[in-house]
Amino acid sequence: PEVVDSRRKRSQLKKDMEWHLKMLLLPRRNVSPFSHSPAASYTDSSDDETSPRDKQQKNSKGSSDFCVKNIKQAEFGRREIEIAEQEMPALMALRKRAQGEKPLAGAKIVGCTHITAQTAVLMETLGALGAQCRWAACNIYSTLNEVAAALAESGFPVFAWKGESEDDFWWCIDRCVNVEGWQPNMILDDGGDLTHWIYKKYPNMFKKIKGIVEESVTGVHRLYQLSKAGKLCVPAMNVNDSVTKQKFDNLYCCRESILDGLKRTTDMMFGGKQVVVCGYGEVGKGCCAALKAMGSIVYVTEIDPICALQACMDGFRLVKLNEVIRQVDIVITCTGNKNVVTREHLDRMKNSCIVCNMGHSNTEIDVASLRTPELTWERVRSQVDHVIWPDGKRIVLLAEGRLLNLSCSTVPTFVLSITATTQALALIELYNAPEGRYKQDVYLLPKKMGKGIPSPWPYARPQESSLPFPCCSQWTPL
Amino acid sequence: PEVVDSRRKRSQLKKDMEWHLKMLLLPRRNVSPFSHSPAASYTDSSDDETSPRDKQQKNSKGSSDFCVKNIKQAEFGRREIEIAEQEMPALMALRKRAQGEKPLAGAKIVGCTHITAQTAVLMETLGALGAQCRWAACNIYSTLNEVAAALAESGFPVFAWKGESEDDFWWCIDRCVNVEGWQPNMILDDGGDLTHWIYKKYPNMFKKIKGIVEESVTGVHRLYQLSKAGKLCVPAMNVNDSVTKQKFDNLYCCRESILDGLKRTTDMMFGGKQVVVCGYGEVGKGCCAALKAMGSIVYVTEIDPICALQACMDGFRLVKLNEVIRQVDIVITCTGNKNVVTREHLDRMKNSCIVCNMGHSNTEIDVASLRTPELTWERVRSQVDHVIWPDGKRIVLLAEGRLLNLSCSTVPTFVLSITATTQALALIELYNAPEGRYKQDVYLLPKKMGKGIPSPWPYARPQESSLPFPCCSQWTPL
Amino acid sequence: PEVVDSRRKRSQLKKDMEWHLKMLLLPRRNVSPFSHSPAASYTDSSDDETSPRDKQQKNSKGSSDFCVKNIKQAEFGRREIEIAEQEMPALMALRKRAQGEKPLAGAKIVGCTHITAQTAVLMETLGALGAQCRWAACNIYSTLNEVAAALAESGFPVFAWKGESEDDFWWCIDRCVNVEGWQPNMILDDGGDLTHWIYKKYPNMFKKIKGIVEESVTGVHRLYQLSKAGKLCVPAMNVNDSVTKQKFDNLYCCRESILDGLKRTTDMMFGGKQVVVCGYGEVGKGCCAALKAMGSIVYVTEIDPICALQACMDGFRLVKLNEVIRQVDIVITCTGNKNVVTREHLDRMKNSCIVCNMGHSNTEIDVASLRTPELTWERVRSQVDHVIWPDGKRIVLLAEGRLLNLSCSTVPTFVLSITATTQALALIELYNAPEGRYKQDVYLLPKKMGKGIPSPWPYARPQESSLPFPCCSQWTPL
Amino acid sequence: PEVVDSRRKRSQLKKDMEWHLKMLLLPRRNVSPFSHSPAASYTDSSDDETSPRDKQQKNSKGSSDFCVKNIKQAEFGRREIEIAEQEMPALMALRKRAQGEKPLAGAKIVGCTHITAQTAVLMETLGALGAQCRWAACNIYSTLNEVAAALAESGFPVFAWKGESEDDFWWCIDRCVNVEGWQPNMILDDGGDLTHWIYKKYPNMFKKIKGIVEESVTGVHRLYQLSKAGKLCVPAMNVNDSVTKQKFDNLYCCRESILDGLKRTTDMMFGGKQVVVCGYGEVGKGCCAALKAMGSIVYVTEIDPICALQACMDGFRLVKLNEVIRQVDIVITCTGNKNVVTREHLDRMKNSCIVCNMGHSNTEIDVASLRTPELTWERVRSQVDHVIWPDGKRIVLLAEGRLLNLSCSTVPTFVLSITATTQALALIELYNAPEGRYKQDVYLLPKKMGKGIPSPWPYARPQESSLPFPCCSQWTPL
């Protein structure tokens, strides 16, 4: 699931924009306590075309140290934030436990992430822990304007709106960083743009940063490159590869989103269907478990010997794709490789076979090979194309081979809450670590953190108890 | 799932209309090969306000023995029918096997059902088997105009459109029955209105009917009443209570629709959530199995001793609702009883608890008790209300307590195909049964049918083989 | 699972004896709180060869109205009974609830069943409910002498020992029935021998019986024949076909015993193995569910259309046996038919394939076809034979094709407790039913029983509660 | 599961002997194609008391370079080896693939492992790959004499018998190492005794060894100590921590052995039982999955935050042990910690609660605390004790708190085959690695091995195929 992170690589920008635009057109709901719907914005039909940069806005306390679409939407955003809080128990528990001790007192955090209700809960938690924050968006489309307004209203200097230009994008980042009399000492980044900006434009400021917390594949990759080149003069935490994030983003999330994505697009029945899942990593494991539970007969292809063995011991029939391609009703890719499903496979599929991708970017299915004159494409609904062979056979291609879980499903707030908690803990750990514990390198969050850190891990128990700390509603006190 | 069947009880009509209207407003997709979306109609934005009864239309062969919204939509409808055929393998197999022998040659079937792509596949199968058919809609809202047009175009006398008045409704039925030189000998009914009409208006015609096939609870109930009163002079088949229909409409369908309905409305994550399912009948079994597989912790309440024992042996903790009401994240009713979830329960639920009904009509949750001044209702999206207590606690009520699976999910074509196949077989059986096998009574479809009947049961195997007849794609020949 | 019931058909007697003898040789444990081990008897190595009929024994209260192997073993038997009580919660609850009201006061029950710790718990419950009982064994081998002694010691007239001759068998029955000054008014039978004896020898006594409760297939069959012939002058309850008994004896019991039987005999690993299960009735469903859960890949053969459909919707690949016979590691029969696995199938199995029967008697696998000169049989351990083909291929045949679950596994006490509770309730119901409710026919136990019956159903809840009555440890009060 | 590995620590030796002796008394079967039963030896009742060291034996080719109990038992052993081959597909495939190239040509391997049929398959595979082998037993009790005889008969210099004295033990090892004109260049060890012997006694030989492959926890620990101390002058492979071994020894093996161990000892029914599993590592995951599948209601205690989260997302209720100790039917420990179940817990358990240990050694349950005067112990069968409280409450303690899976279940051949294959690959890799790839350190087997190595991994596919290499019977060619 790196698509989002690679979004600012120049060469891919156009393509990604296209994709995002399509995503915007999906019929989405307004407000959900349970999910992150980046494109949703229920008061967005505002015909206000003025750029936020050209507006004069003040929040109710008189501050104008922010730049959002419309400060008047704050109330709507506040409600969304309150709703999101209910599905982020670990973060709320951290807020409660830690605020007495203010472990981030003195921290000046500059952040660059998607601006959503879930991010707002994170920011307000950081604030409660003692930090000062300034924030920009890491994506020009994904800001929820109402949430940005709510944050601005409660005093957070937020610089973000939906539909920024590229120039706006960098302007916003700069407004977070380049402030009279305020110098950040911590970075929370998602994609590496903020880090890059400070590194390039404000090298002296960069040297004084105490720590960087980075979430995305792309950003982490950049950090490792810096580190390799000997230019990373700041310790950094790689949140992306933490066990919790990996399990949630892949296994637990996909176990649910494969069903959701297939149902929303095709309304098919799973029971009795034959399915082949290509790849038995965490994503594949989630897909297989879900479909098996719904009564599908699931085959697995896998080349990694250990994953293959796991598939086998989990009761799935291991096959070559060719062996079953003629008989299956659904083909799902989650290998991380390219062209796992080729035109030859597509030619041999049976009528009305469904093909979709849960794995990497949009490369697993060779969709390009289907753009030939003898095949007819029919868009039957959003995200669903019928590709029709001369003899009338149709295959049902979902999301044009892009990620089904991102295109046709939603990411639950609870999943996002795991990442947000890990980010908060990484900030606490880096900010409080004694001199010398972390060198100028990229680290994973340790299981046990420094003494005196209020909550050493999102789900850790207090020493005296055998019960894990609230990680989900199971432990919500009655 | 009787809601649909009770639709014509005068007293409920208003309420149901309201409900149907709301259902129409759900964002639906255009065409799906896999589901029945009664409200979908992608060319419906026609501004043509003329009543079909006032139009002069001819199909391409010159016939005008039909009455539909717009014969020109036939092509769109044809495509939907073709797509539906792909998820109705048993019916298509029956069509193939049986057409050589024309077991319905001479049958004159008058039908009254929802007019959908799935019905069209049934009608064209009946035609292929030798029958002549005339058809009306059993519901004033549910007709897919394009499908009706496609049927009319290929020569079926169809009298149905979306948005009939009650007068239209009976006019359409009468046009099917009251034809110069054509007298029906078989009835296929869904709700009992057609049967009632013939019984009342054309008693002589009624006596000559060879058999009635009825699908709905309401219609079956009426037949039993007639039979009890000694007025049923025709053998009838109760399709509603066939094992296959019961299993599919309840266990298999709900196993999928509970997840779908919850996801589409709330986008919540299932993993780690605590759920109480009230009732462990077929519907409850489906809900429990699905949620358990998604990693929820599921509690069951049940008063029937045998179902309770099954829940217990299936690994679910049996509880009283009161014991767990404070701790659960989701409450699902599927008991078939009234007021299973009371105001007192609702008062005790925790913040952001989700409450929904998968059971009977809209009676299981005492929604009326929530319409009191101290509680605030907030509609947060279609089918989702937040009910807010004075202290700020919210519960999330789905579909206002109506059936989640009908309101917020779809019925897969495959499920409908099971019923349609059973209907076809019932017609074949009754039409071909030797004199005296069936008396003037209501019957269930026998497992073994009369000799000479081409396919004795939708899934039966040929004598010489140990492989069941195609009941789903598993057996579709490659 | 009718093998036991057919045991007294003359033609089969020899064969069955052989089988029972072999069963006796299985290494069994002494005492288990959780299972019925008919052959276990830890003090049996007594060299006392005197027939119990020739002994003079008295219990500690001076009574000699019994005939058991050795009254001195009573203490050992008492311990077994106490242990069994712990896994029979429903019966113990019935005992507790009902004893105040003595619903069996005045009942004179003559019984003929296996004499085990579980039966003893039943008998003592009947006694607590007010009944007088006299008891004989329904099988010449299965009596646990210590338990018989314990019952005799506490005052029950028991006539049974392990290793009765056929003459002993009928003598014991007669001693129960033919008593000076005591005339039975209820019969509890398992196999129909007791009923037959009274019917033939004491026709006047038979007419005065208020009710018969029969557990076995054979016994029920005999009752239906009597009824058909117009000779059944007493209402009878068919316990064998009660839903609870069917579910427990088949689905729930086999779900566990298939794993247990295979492990104890072969110690094989289930994960990753390919298995074909022939038949998807209750037994097949249990086997499939268990093996799937252990990571086996399971195929199903089935000819009944509805069961086939269930297999399909439960996610099992439906096949013809021929299609998979070459590739599977295990073949399990549970069809109830004859020669499901033929010599031809056996010839085609791969080396070291395991073949076993969970279904009916010993007819499903054509074992006779393996007794040909070119095949070598090797007994590798108790209940396990290797049959070796000329080319060295071996198949592993378990229990010579007899029932794996009876031969190589045990029946948990909890399963037996279900039947025993049903028997007790049937006796209560028949004894208390108002004149005329039950005619001279064979009945199933009704879900709701007569008013005034203390506990209307083993798992029924009191009217005022939504919690089921204790059916297993879940509800045992802490 | 380290018990076996710690066996030669002087301080534990007595205790372990006791344990092994008890294990010998378990009723075991003779030969199984599917499991490793270390104590089984069907011709052992030989009254031959002469020490093998004092015997003069020759195999049929005239060699006497071996020392086994009785060379005449070779035929029986050969059969066991042939049977084991059938459950070791990966090793057999390796043998087939690799023998053309003889990747171990020139290797002189000295080995010290359990001498079982499974080891024999490994040794004969190493021979087929070109190696010369000499072998001793790593345990004084576990040798299967027949297998040792079969190996000796086919020309392997084997020095091992069941019931060696400690002096014998070292004598056997020395006879493998100290040979005129033959010097080992590879070590395959299980426990580190062989390595230690060579290191201490033959330091010059030690320096010339090309590689050590070690399987056990103890042996690996010793290697790391050597390495730390700078004294390990040979590269070593740690097989114990390979992913495949870990998964099989823990997750997959325990998923089956928990059920097997409980059934064999108690014959209890799992359905509907309440179980608490302490610890959700690989062993706990296996136990939970199995019991959930059998219809138990499973609670989990866990202090590791990530494992706790996994339990939660897998649908298990996380609890403190105290919360549920009064209500559960079974308590299973698999934490790896000490005194997880204390006397206080034991005091609060309900009557007939079962307590057992699947985790570490015999420390998890505080069994010592039960040896107090007021409690009565009753041995009810082998490996099953009832501990009885003054008020009559009994708890059922299995295997006196030692490992249930080792004491009361068996280890399937397939599980052992995974380890054996990994050992073979490790030998191939170390023997063929170019100079300098492996330093004087302890390594894990790499996923990709050196070019030219015939089969780089037990389950790896050839480059050109998407099908994994045979890892189990699924891929056995028909």
Automatic annotation (TrEMBL), chains A, B, C, D:
Boundaries of every S-adenosyl-L-homocysteine hydrolase NAD binding domain copy: 250-411
GO biological processes: one-carbon metabolic process; S-adenosylmethionine cycle
InterPro entries: Adenosylhomocyst_ase-like_sf, Adenosylhomocysteinase-like, Ado_hCys_hydrolase_NAD-bd, NAD(P)-bd_dom_sf, S-Ado-L-homoCys_hydrolase_CS
Keywords tagged on the record: NAD, One-carbon metabolism
Sites where the protein binds substrate: T116, D190, E215, K245, D249
Extent of Polar residues compositional bias: 32-44
Keyword Hydrolase: no
Binding-site residues for NAD(+), renumbered to this chain: G281, E282, V283, G284, K285, G286, E302, N405
Region of interest (Disordered), residue spans: 30-64
Keyword NAD found: yes
Highest taxon, organism lineage: Eukaryota
GO CC, one annotated term: cytosol
Co-factor note (free text): Binds 1 NAD(+) per subunit.
Cofactors: NAD(+)
Family to which the UniProt record says this protein belongs: Belongs to the adenosylhomocysteinase family.
Cross-referenced PANTHER family: ADENOSYLHOMOCYSTEINASE (PTHR23420), ADENOSYLHOMOCYSTEINASE 3 (PTHR23420:SF2)
Protein name: Adenosylhomocysteinase like 2
Protein species of origin: Gopherus evgoodei (Goodes thornscrub tortoise)
Lineage: Eukaryota, Metazoa, Chordata, Craniata, Vertebrata
Gene name of this polypeptide: AHCYL2
